[in-house]
Amino acid sequence: MRRYPAALARRMRALLRRRTTAELQSSATIDLRSPGIAADPFPHYETLRREGSVLFLPQNDYWIVLGHEAVRSALARPEHFSNAPYRDVDAVLLAADPPVQTVIRRTVARLFSPAVTARLEATASRLSEALVRPELDAVANYAIPVSRGVTADLLGLDAAGMDDIVHAEEVSRGTADPLGNFVRSLDALAPRSTMFGALTGAGIPEESARSLVRLMWLAGTTTTQRVISRTILRVIECDSDQRALRADPALLRPFVEEILRLHPPEHMVPRLAMADVELDGVTIPAGADVRLCLSAANRDPAQFGQPDRIRFDRGNARHFAFGSGAHACIGAQVGRATANIAVATLLHRSAALHALRPLHEIRYFATEAALSPESLEIGVMPI
To answer: What span, in angstroms and rounded, lies between the C-alpha atoms of 354 and 242?
Structure first.
Protein backbone atom coordinates (compact mmCIF):
# COMPACT_ATOMS: atom_id res chain seq x y z
CA MET A 1 0.00 0.00 0.00
CA ARG A 2 2.96 2.31 0.55
CA ARG A 3 3.44 2.63 -3.17
CA TYR A 4 0.30 4.80 -3.50
CA PRO A 5 1.58 7.81 -1.48
CA ALA A 6 4.86 7.57 -3.40
CA ALA A 7 3.03 7.43 -6.72
CA LEU A 8 0.88 10.39 -5.69
CA ALA A 9 3.99 12.35 -4.77
CA ARG A 10 5.58 11.58 -8.13
CA ARG A 11 2.40 12.67 -9.90
CA MET A 12 2.29 15.95 -7.99
CA ARG A 13 5.93 16.66 -8.82
CA ALA A 14 5.21 15.98 -12.51
CA LEU A 15 2.22 18.33 -12.44
CA LEU A 16 4.32 21.05 -10.86
CA ARG A 17 7.01 20.60 -13.50
CA ARG A 18 4.35 20.97 -16.18
CA ARG A 19 3.31 24.41 -14.99
CA THR A 20 3.36 26.50 -18.11
CA THR A 21 5.78 29.32 -18.72
CA ALA A 22 2.74 31.60 -18.84
CA GLU A 23 1.95 30.87 -15.18
CA LEU A 24 5.46 31.95 -14.18
CA GLN A 25 5.50 35.16 -16.23
CA SER A 26 4.37 38.68 -15.40
CA SER A 27 4.28 42.02 -17.19
CA ALA A 28 7.71 42.76 -15.71
CA THR A 29 9.36 39.65 -17.15
CA ILE A 30 7.45 38.53 -20.23
CA ASP A 31 8.99 39.01 -23.67
CA LEU A 32 6.36 38.52 -26.36
CA ARG A 33 9.10 38.37 -29.02
CA SER A 34 10.64 35.19 -27.61
CA PRO A 35 10.10 32.21 -29.95
CA GLY A 36 8.48 30.03 -27.30
CA ILE A 37 5.82 32.64 -26.55
CA ALA A 38 5.30 33.67 -30.18
CA ALA A 39 4.52 30.02 -31.00
CA ASP A 40 1.55 30.06 -28.59
CA PRO A 41 0.90 33.54 -27.19
CA PHE A 42 -2.69 33.05 -26.01
CA PRO A 43 -2.08 31.72 -22.48
CA HIS A 44 0.44 34.51 -21.98
CA TYR A 45 -2.17 37.11 -22.92
CA GLU A 46 -4.42 35.65 -20.23
CA THR A 47 -1.61 35.79 -17.68
CA LEU A 48 -1.14 39.48 -18.49
CA ARG A 49 -4.89 40.13 -18.43
CA ARG A 50 -4.97 39.14 -14.76
CA GLU A 51 -2.81 42.20 -14.05
CA GLY A 52 -4.98 44.58 -16.04
CA SER A 53 -6.17 45.48 -19.52
CA VAL A 54 -3.49 48.15 -20.12
CA LEU A 55 0.08 47.31 -19.13
CA PHE A 56 3.65 48.40 -19.81
CA LEU A 57 5.99 45.57 -20.84
CA PRO A 58 9.58 46.60 -20.02
CA GLN A 59 11.07 43.63 -21.88
CA ASN A 60 9.38 44.82 -25.08
CA ASP A 61 9.45 48.55 -24.27
CA TYR A 62 5.82 49.12 -25.26
CA TRP A 63 2.37 49.36 -23.77
CA ILE A 64 -0.03 46.52 -24.52
CA VAL A 65 -3.81 46.88 -24.55
CA LEU A 66 -5.63 43.60 -23.90
CA GLY A 67 -9.24 44.33 -22.94
CA HIS A 68 -12.02 44.37 -25.53
CA GLU A 69 -13.47 47.69 -24.38
CA ALA A 70 -10.03 49.31 -24.09
CA VAL A 71 -9.06 48.18 -27.62
CA ARG A 72 -12.40 49.39 -28.98
CA SER A 73 -11.84 52.79 -27.36
CA ALA A 74 -8.31 53.11 -28.74
CA LEU A 75 -9.38 52.13 -32.27
CA ALA A 76 -12.10 54.79 -32.10
CA ARG A 77 -9.63 57.57 -31.17
CA PRO A 78 -7.03 58.00 -33.92
CA GLU A 79 -6.42 61.53 -32.63
CA HIS A 80 -4.95 59.94 -29.49
CA PHE A 81 -3.68 56.64 -30.93
CA SER A 82 -2.13 57.38 -34.31
CA ASN A 83 -1.47 54.87 -37.10
CA ALA A 84 1.86 56.61 -37.80
CA PRO A 85 3.95 53.45 -37.07
CA TYR A 86 2.75 52.07 -40.41
CA ARG A 87 4.37 54.87 -42.42
CA ASP A 88 6.96 52.55 -43.99
CA VAL A 89 4.19 50.32 -45.36
CA ASP A 90 1.89 53.09 -46.60
CA ALA A 91 1.87 56.69 -45.46
CA VAL A 92 -1.13 57.68 -47.59
CA LEU A 93 -4.01 55.63 -46.17
CA LEU A 94 -2.76 53.15 -43.56
CA ALA A 95 -0.47 55.45 -41.59
CA ALA A 96 -2.46 58.63 -42.15
CA ASP A 97 -5.08 59.80 -39.66
CA PRO A 98 -8.31 61.78 -40.08
CA PRO A 99 -9.17 64.22 -41.49
CA VAL A 100 -6.56 63.77 -44.27
CA GLN A 101 -7.02 60.00 -44.27
CA THR A 102 -10.81 60.35 -44.59
CA VAL A 103 -10.60 61.95 -48.03
CA ILE A 104 -8.26 59.27 -49.38
CA ARG A 105 -10.35 56.51 -47.82
CA ARG A 106 -13.49 57.72 -49.60
CA THR A 107 -11.68 57.68 -52.93
CA VAL A 108 -10.31 54.17 -52.43
CA ALA A 109 -13.64 52.87 -51.11
CA ARG A 110 -15.26 53.68 -54.45
CA LEU A 111 -13.01 51.04 -56.03
CA PHE A 112 -14.76 48.37 -53.93
CA SER A 113 -18.14 48.71 -55.63
CA PRO A 114 -20.73 45.89 -55.52
CA ALA A 115 -19.89 45.07 -59.14
CA VAL A 116 -16.16 44.79 -58.36
CA THR A 117 -16.86 42.68 -55.29
CA ALA A 118 -19.04 40.30 -57.33
CA ARG A 119 -16.29 40.01 -59.95
CA LEU A 120 -13.69 39.22 -57.29
CA GLU A 121 -15.94 36.56 -55.77
CA ALA A 122 -16.24 34.94 -59.21
CA THR A 123 -12.44 35.04 -59.51
CA ALA A 124 -12.06 33.41 -56.09
CA SER A 125 -14.49 30.66 -57.10
CA ARG A 126 -12.76 30.02 -60.45
CA LEU A 127 -9.29 29.87 -58.91
CA SER A 128 -10.37 27.66 -56.02
CA GLU A 129 -12.04 25.15 -58.32
CA ALA A 130 -8.97 24.98 -60.55
CA LEU A 131 -6.53 24.42 -57.67
CA VAL A 132 -8.20 21.46 -55.93
CA ARG A 133 -6.06 18.32 -56.11
CA PRO A 134 -6.16 14.94 -54.31
CA GLU A 135 -3.10 16.07 -52.36
CA LEU A 136 -1.90 19.63 -51.92
CA ASP A 137 -0.20 22.08 -49.65
CA ALA A 138 -3.18 24.16 -48.51
CA VAL A 139 -0.89 27.17 -48.02
CA ALA A 140 1.51 27.17 -50.98
CA ASN A 141 -0.78 25.48 -53.52
CA TYR A 142 -4.12 26.91 -52.47
CA ALA A 143 -4.40 29.82 -50.02
CA ILE A 144 -1.52 31.82 -51.50
CA PRO A 145 -2.45 31.50 -55.20
CA VAL A 146 -6.12 32.20 -54.46
CA SER A 147 -5.31 35.33 -52.46
CA ARG A 148 -2.77 36.51 -55.06
CA GLY A 149 -5.17 35.94 -57.94
CA VAL A 150 -8.02 37.83 -56.29
CA THR A 151 -5.73 40.71 -55.32
CA ALA A 152 -4.29 40.88 -58.83
CA ASP A 153 -7.85 41.09 -60.19
CA LEU A 154 -8.65 43.88 -57.72
CA LEU A 155 -5.59 45.83 -58.82
CA GLY A 156 -6.20 45.14 -62.50
CA LEU A 157 -2.95 43.28 -63.12
CA ASP A 158 -2.61 40.86 -66.01
CA ALA A 159 -0.94 37.47 -65.56
CA ALA A 160 2.47 38.82 -66.55
CA GLY A 161 2.19 41.66 -64.04
CA MET A 162 1.26 39.30 -61.23
CA ASP A 163 4.10 36.95 -62.16
CA ASP A 164 6.56 39.82 -62.05
CA ILE A 165 5.41 40.80 -58.55
CA VAL A 166 5.66 37.22 -57.33
CA HIS A 167 9.15 36.93 -58.82
CA ALA A 168 10.20 40.21 -57.19
CA GLU A 169 8.98 38.94 -53.82
CA GLU A 170 10.94 35.70 -54.20
CA VAL A 171 14.11 37.53 -55.19
CA SER A 172 13.80 39.99 -52.30
CA ARG A 173 13.72 37.18 -49.72
CA GLY A 174 17.40 36.50 -50.28
CA THR A 175 18.50 40.11 -49.72
CA ALA A 176 19.58 41.98 -46.60
CA ASP A 177 16.42 44.11 -46.67
CA PRO A 178 13.67 41.82 -48.01
CA LEU A 179 10.68 44.06 -47.23
CA GLY A 180 12.39 47.24 -48.39
CA ASN A 181 13.51 45.67 -51.67
CA PHE A 182 10.09 44.15 -52.30
CA VAL A 183 8.40 47.49 -51.60
CA ARG A 184 10.64 49.19 -54.14
CA SER A 185 9.78 46.50 -56.69
CA LEU A 186 6.08 46.92 -56.01
CA ASP A 187 6.34 50.67 -56.45
CA ALA A 188 8.07 50.21 -59.82
CA LEU A 189 5.41 47.75 -61.01
CA ALA A 190 2.41 49.71 -59.69
CA PRO A 191 1.76 51.72 -62.91
CA ARG A 192 1.01 48.44 -64.71
CA SER A 193 -2.19 48.07 -62.67
CA THR A 194 -5.49 49.62 -63.74
CA MET A 195 -6.04 50.71 -60.11
CA PHE A 196 -3.02 53.01 -60.44
CA GLY A 197 -4.67 54.73 -63.40
CA ALA A 198 -8.00 54.96 -61.55
CA LEU A 199 -6.33 56.57 -58.55
CA THR A 200 -4.30 59.09 -60.53
CA GLY A 201 -7.39 59.82 -62.62
CA ALA A 202 -9.21 60.68 -59.37
CA GLY A 203 -6.57 63.30 -58.61
CA ILE A 204 -4.26 61.29 -56.35
CA PRO A 205 -0.56 62.06 -57.00
CA GLU A 206 1.49 59.31 -58.62
CA GLU A 207 3.66 58.60 -55.57
CA SER A 208 0.57 58.29 -53.41
CA ALA A 209 -1.05 56.00 -55.98
CA ARG A 210 2.05 53.77 -55.92
CA SER A 211 1.82 53.57 -52.14
CA LEU A 212 -1.87 52.62 -52.26
CA VAL A 213 -1.31 49.89 -54.86
CA ARG A 214 1.52 48.57 -52.68
CA LEU A 215 -0.78 48.53 -49.64
CA MET A 216 -3.55 46.71 -51.49
CA TRP A 217 -1.16 43.99 -52.63
CA LEU A 218 0.52 43.49 -49.25
CA ALA A 219 -2.71 43.56 -47.25
CA GLY A 220 -4.86 41.70 -49.76
CA THR A 221 -2.51 38.76 -50.22
CA THR A 222 -1.17 38.31 -46.68
CA THR A 223 -4.43 38.81 -44.80
CA THR A 224 -6.58 36.56 -46.98
CA GLN A 225 -3.97 33.82 -47.21
CA ARG A 226 -3.72 33.64 -43.42
CA VAL A 227 -7.49 33.44 -42.96
CA ILE A 228 -7.85 30.65 -45.54
CA SER A 229 -4.93 28.67 -44.09
CA ARG A 230 -6.16 28.98 -40.52
CA THR A 231 -9.69 27.97 -41.44
CA ILE A 232 -8.55 24.86 -43.33
CA LEU A 233 -6.27 23.93 -40.43
CA ARG A 234 -9.21 24.01 -38.03
CA VAL A 235 -11.33 21.92 -40.40
CA ILE A 236 -8.74 19.13 -40.46
CA GLU A 237 -7.97 19.48 -36.75
CA CYS A 238 -11.55 19.01 -35.57
CA ASP A 239 -13.65 16.18 -37.03
CA SER A 240 -16.82 17.41 -35.33
CA ASP A 241 -16.50 20.85 -36.94
CA GLN A 242 -15.89 19.27 -40.35
CA ARG A 243 -18.96 17.05 -39.96
CA ALA A 244 -21.09 20.03 -38.90
CA LEU A 245 -19.97 22.10 -41.90
CA ARG A 246 -20.72 19.27 -44.30
CA ALA A 247 -24.13 18.68 -42.75
CA ASP A 248 -25.07 22.38 -42.93
CA PRO A 249 -23.06 24.57 -45.33
CA ALA A 250 -24.77 27.66 -43.88
CA LEU A 251 -22.56 27.23 -40.80
CA LEU A 252 -19.45 28.14 -42.78
CA ARG A 253 -19.90 31.91 -42.43
CA PRO A 254 -20.17 31.90 -38.61
CA PHE A 255 -17.33 29.36 -38.57
CA VAL A 256 -15.03 31.68 -40.53
CA GLU A 257 -16.00 34.55 -38.22
CA GLU A 258 -14.95 32.47 -35.24
CA ILE A 259 -11.63 31.68 -36.91
CA LEU A 260 -11.16 35.40 -37.52
CA ARG A 261 -12.00 36.16 -33.90
CA LEU A 262 -9.63 33.56 -32.46
CA HIS A 263 -6.87 33.93 -35.06
CA PRO A 264 -6.91 37.41 -36.62
CA PRO A 265 -4.36 37.93 -39.41
CA GLU A 266 -2.40 40.15 -36.99
CA HIS A 267 -2.38 39.57 -33.24
CA MET A 268 -1.33 43.12 -32.49
CA VAL A 269 -1.41 46.43 -34.30
CA PRO A 270 0.92 49.32 -33.38
CA ARG A 271 -0.15 52.80 -32.44
CA LEU A 272 1.64 55.98 -31.35
CA ALA A 273 0.28 57.89 -28.33
CA MET A 274 -0.09 61.48 -29.50
CA ALA A 275 -0.41 62.92 -25.98
CA ASP A 276 -0.74 61.73 -22.41
CA VAL A 277 -3.93 59.69 -22.69
CA GLU A 278 -5.99 57.72 -20.21
CA LEU A 279 -7.22 54.27 -21.20
CA ASP A 280 -9.15 52.08 -18.80
CA GLY A 281 -7.87 54.09 -15.84
CA VAL A 282 -4.21 53.95 -16.91
CA THR A 283 -2.31 56.97 -18.23
CA ILE A 284 -0.17 56.21 -21.28
CA PRO A 285 2.50 58.90 -21.84
CA ALA A 286 2.83 60.96 -24.99
CA GLY A 287 5.12 59.40 -27.58
CA ALA A 288 4.66 55.89 -26.21
CA ASP A 289 4.75 52.82 -28.43
CA VAL A 290 1.35 51.15 -27.96
CA ARG A 291 0.25 47.72 -29.20
CA LEU A 292 -3.45 46.95 -29.43
CA CYS A 293 -3.69 43.20 -28.89
CA LEU A 294 -6.58 42.19 -31.13
CA SER A 295 -6.23 38.51 -30.26
CA ALA A 296 -6.53 39.18 -26.54
CA ALA A 297 -9.48 41.55 -27.05
CA ASN A 298 -11.18 38.92 -29.20
CA ARG A 299 -10.82 36.40 -26.35
CA ASP A 300 -11.86 38.73 -23.54
CA PRO A 301 -14.17 36.75 -21.22
CA ALA A 302 -15.91 39.99 -20.27
CA GLN A 303 -17.16 40.22 -23.87
CA PHE A 304 -17.36 36.59 -25.07
CA GLY A 305 -18.77 33.57 -23.31
CA GLN A 306 -16.47 30.54 -23.61
CA PRO A 307 -13.96 32.82 -25.39
CA ASP A 308 -11.51 30.09 -26.42
CA ARG A 309 -14.14 27.88 -28.04
CA ILE A 310 -15.57 27.99 -31.55
CA ARG A 311 -19.31 28.46 -31.34
CA PHE A 312 -21.50 28.43 -34.42
CA ASP A 313 -24.25 30.25 -32.49
CA ARG A 314 -22.21 33.22 -31.28
CA GLY A 315 -24.13 35.60 -33.51
CA ASN A 316 -22.91 39.09 -34.35
CA ALA A 317 -19.74 38.99 -32.25
CA ARG A 318 -17.89 42.30 -32.22
CA HIS A 319 -14.38 41.10 -32.91
CA PHE A 320 -11.50 43.20 -34.25
CA ALA A 321 -9.90 40.87 -36.80
CA PHE A 322 -10.23 43.59 -39.44
CA GLY A 323 -9.87 46.49 -37.05
CA SER A 324 -12.56 49.05 -36.32
CA GLY A 325 -13.24 52.74 -36.70
CA ALA A 326 -11.43 55.03 -39.11
CA HIS A 327 -8.79 52.41 -39.91
CA ALA A 328 -11.02 49.37 -40.31
CA CYS A 329 -9.76 47.22 -43.19
CA ILE A 330 -11.22 48.65 -46.37
CA GLY A 331 -11.06 45.25 -48.09
CA ALA A 332 -12.63 43.23 -45.26
CA GLN A 333 -15.67 42.23 -47.31
CA VAL A 334 -13.50 40.88 -50.11
CA GLY A 335 -11.24 39.03 -47.67
CA ARG A 336 -14.18 37.40 -45.92
CA ALA A 337 -15.83 36.40 -49.19
CA THR A 338 -12.61 34.94 -50.61
CA ALA A 339 -11.98 32.85 -47.49
CA ASN A 340 -15.55 31.56 -47.43
CA ILE A 341 -15.42 30.61 -51.12
CA ALA A 342 -12.03 28.91 -50.87
CA VAL A 343 -13.02 26.76 -47.89
CA ALA A 344 -16.50 26.04 -49.24
CA THR A 345 -14.97 24.80 -52.51
CA LEU A 346 -12.67 22.37 -50.70
CA LEU A 347 -15.58 21.01 -48.66
CA HIS A 348 -17.87 20.74 -51.67
CA ARG A 349 -15.24 18.97 -53.81
CA SER A 350 -14.33 16.38 -51.17
CA ALA A 351 -15.83 13.63 -49.07
CA ALA A 352 -13.26 14.36 -46.36
CA LEU A 353 -10.23 16.54 -45.72
CA HIS A 354 -7.36 15.17 -43.67
CA ALA A 355 -3.75 15.97 -42.79
CA LEU A 356 -1.04 14.13 -44.66
CA ARG A 357 1.49 14.73 -41.89
CA PRO A 358 1.17 14.86 -38.10
CA LEU A 359 -0.22 18.23 -37.08
CA HIS A 360 2.60 18.79 -34.57
CA GLU A 361 5.03 18.92 -37.53
CA ILE A 362 3.34 21.97 -39.06
CA ARG A 363 5.74 24.87 -39.55
CA TYR A 364 4.46 28.29 -38.53
CA PHE A 365 5.36 31.86 -39.33
CA ALA A 366 5.53 33.01 -35.71
CA THR A 367 6.27 36.54 -34.56
CA GLU A 368 4.86 38.69 -31.77
CA ALA A 369 2.35 40.05 -34.30
CA ALA A 370 1.35 36.97 -36.33
CA LEU A 371 1.01 33.21 -36.14
CA SER A 372 0.16 31.40 -39.37
CA PRO A 373 0.94 27.99 -40.94
CA GLU A 374 3.74 28.12 -43.50
CA SER A 375 2.86 24.71 -44.88
CA LEU A 376 -0.21 22.49 -44.50
CA GLU A 377 -0.20 19.28 -46.51
CA ILE A 378 -3.69 17.84 -46.83
CA GLY A 379 -5.47 14.99 -48.57
CA VAL A 380 -8.69 15.75 -50.42
CA MET A 381 -10.73 12.56 -50.52
CA PRO A 382 -12.82 12.58 -53.72
CA ILE A 383 -16.58 12.26 -53.52
So the answer is: 10
